[in-house]
Queue: 2 jobs
Job 1
Amino acid sequence: MHKTNSGIHIHVAEDMYDQEQSVSAHGKRVVERLSDAGVLGSPKSILVHCLHLDDRERELIRNSRHGWLKTARVTSTTGWDTSTGQDWR
């Protein structure tokens, strides 16, 4: 990313399965892996959804240089309300 002055657009933790698979395969949660890979260091990176994050992941994002974080208020597939952090079903 640094060589090309670019970022990454990625859907992050849209479903809890994303976290489960990441921990099972890599021993880390999704945002921790992105941080280790340097994705959060690019102001041009775009993180989308970010529904199933823990406090550590939120802190990593808050302290990062990412360009934009878009979190949908409610997704019809998960029923997760990101403004309150609660299941609306």
Note: The longest strand covers residues 9-12.
Job 2
Amino acid sequence: MTVRFTSHTLLDGGVLEREFTLAGFTGILWMPPTATPSSQVPLLLLNQPGGFDTRRMYPRLVARAAAAAKEGFGSVTIELARPYPAPTRLAPTCAPRSPRARSRAPR
């Protein structure tokens, strides 16, 4: 798999924003001005509520990425390939204990 950068923009504060595609996914990478090939920075994965595309959530995501960049962190967000897979519900592995069951436990 190869990351293909499709655009790059220099934002306020020297933050570099790069849109990319990878194996059918699209995303945005934000890097602080302190990031260089010889001086790497930690990378945060920014999440968004399900059902919203990256463009709709962009103002919130870029604000979080800019705040993280001020602290020396890079940030990335990815968009699932469409159509979105149907959500699955995971069954609990065991039933939770009720408060009553706990109070009856031997001491």
Note: The chain has a mean pLDDT of 81.
